[in-house]
Amino acid sequence: MTRGVLSVLLIFGSILFVFATGKPYIPKTGKRIPETLSRGWGDQLIWAQTYEEALYWSRTRNKPLMVVFHLADCPHSQAFKKIFANSYDIQKTLDEDFIVLNLMYETTDKNLSPDGQYVPRIFFVDPSMTVRADISGRYSNRLYAYEPTDEKLLRENMEKAKKLLKQEL
Amino acid sequence: MTRGVLSVLLIFGSILFVFATGKPYIPKTGKRIPETLSRGWGDQLIWAQTYEEALYWSRTRNKPLMVVFHLADCPHSQAFKKIFANSYDIQKTLDEDFIVLNLMYETTDKNLSPDGQYVPRIFFVDPSMTVRADISGRYSNRLYAYEPTDEKLLRENMEKAKKLLKQEL
């Protein structure tokens, strides 16, 4: 009997809820899983949404910024993402010492494409808002590209980026 | 007995998995829930990440763009977001006929702040990349602001934005 009363209350409550908040919108193609800002590059990191936001965070928190350009349908991006997202050391250092941003579309800042708009490519930006073009990978035709075998090199480059420019002056 | 063997296999499999993928990184402050691109403005919508991306989508798909500026710690933004995200009509129309972008940081495009950088404020951009400064709300001192009571006005403005500029020429 009590269970019956509870059920009625529950149904009544649900109807009230729908009336109060309205029918939720579900696309015809079915419910979608919301896209995250990480896009698979590290779900535990706090990703900036835009370059402007990332630069602001970098300047105000005095941390270097890492910008990763990638594409969902690029196998090189996907292969490197797997290494990147699963590297404990990369993720920990990024979380503690860096501002992070990943982008699938180019910005209007030409300093982020000095040798072209290929993917994946990674740039470091100093809190002074200087793009660290001096911190590059091992491929002379695509200076800022990284392959899955370049995890160690990326970690070394992160250490370089942590030595902020103003401390060197 | 079979259950015992299965348990051993399961443990062995888990160890193999951790060896293969490495220890996952968890922040000292505990596991985080990844931030979504919707930021609460409609989990079923496909949000662009940046203004450049949104303009590209708008141009190539010939759909008007809606840009929502908001802040997490602004009570006006929060109040309007609740109405916005729970309106079946707004969400359905946006999903079917618009490109959507929500931003917490300003862009470098001054056309998106003709009367200041207040929040919440909403702009429509035509696929021809023209900011529709003519589509505004009801407050003369903050032309592009909307209050929770302005749901109907926003829906009307969305209809205006759907009449693309090039069709009017």
From TrEMBL, chains A, B:
It is found in: Endoplasmic reticulum; Secreted. The keyword Signal applies. It comes from the Eukaryota. InterPro entries: AGR/TXD, Thioredoxin-like_sf. GO terms for cellular component: endoplasmic reticulum; extracellular region. Residues 1-20 form the signal peptide. Keywords: Endoplasmic reticulum, Secreted, Signal. Pfam families: Thioredoxin_7 (PF13899). SUPFAM superfamilies: Thioredoxin-like. Belongs to the AGR family. This is Anterior gradient protein 2 homolog.
